[in-house]
Sequence to fold (344 residues):
Amino acid sequence: MGRYHESPPVPRAFFWRRLQSLMGLLLVIFLIEHLLTNSQVSLTYGSDGIGFIHAVNGIHNLPYLPVIEITLIGLPFLIHMVWGIKYLMTSKQNAYGTDQSQPTLGKYARNHAYTWQRITSWILLVLVIGHVTQMRFIYYPTSAKQGAETYYMIPVSLDDGIYTLSERLGVTLATKQQISEERKQVDSPQLSAGSPAESLTGFFSSISEVFTGSQDEELEGKEVQQLLAAQKQHQKESWVEALEAWPLKQGEVVAIAPDFGTAELLLVRDTFKSPLMLFLYSIFVLAATYHAFNGLWTFNITWGLTLTARSQKYMRMLSLLLMFVIGFLGLIAIWGSYLVNLNQ
Ligand code: HEM
Fold:
């Protein structure tokens, strides 16, 4: 009896197709969040990207951020990409020409969409890897503490706007020479206070001044002073190491930002001074928004959510609207950052 009620096992290929598709939806949500955040670099003219700074700091301060990043972004990307590559290798497009085994059917819009979903997959594969390598690994801000405050460092190239913007954002710019002065000071702590390095940042405020102590009589005295001096020296060393982590080229300085979001803002601004980056990131945004929202439309069919011609028509309108709005916000972040909002 029971045998007739047993449902057949889900075929493996079906399971992976559905998982790849579901991960695609997570990536769409992430893309919307990411481009909404980025657009604030330049959406409000004259704001110095304060909305972006707040949003990035909010994300950066989330508890268990690495766990969130891995489970909600890293793994979904990996699954979607690995299985995506498999599907790309086995897919057959017929919008622009075939291997002659089937007719070329360029007159159907959906055939073109199918082909472009696959073309944008290859573009995204290259650009996503390049983007993550650039922003998460090569140019991830270094950080060091001064007392209880953490500062974030990133290299930037000099231009007229950077001085005034830095002043408004509370950012200090350290030249190569100033960094080597700091190094000398750390290596020979007996150097007097008030040296060029000291005046560069004014960050080396005495920790013992901050120490309000005296809850416990025993904590006072020489031993405590030694502990505090050792901690201060250790902080100075870490500070100089964080500055020296950036091998500066001609015309570059290290920007010392009071928070992570500000460092990221300066990184974005610096990136989009380059015409090559403007071009590559524009292609990236266009490919990602096309792939994501054409994908959102097919996702709804894949999962049986839009089965009638009417519901598919409405979903197409919604997907197109999202494609244009999110695409526009992505492009504004790229073209508005250095060229408009952050160069006064
Ligand atoms: C911005 C990043 C990405 C987003 C937001 C995204 C989103 C999506 C969505 C929503 C779908 C539709 C799923 C369905 O129809 O059920 C899809 C399909 C697809 N994606 Fe992506 N994707 C991204 C990156 C990539 C990358 C890097 C690859 C390259 C390997 C890729 C390969 C594919 C393939 C091959 C399909 C078609 C699967 C099929 O139905 O046969 N995607 N994507």
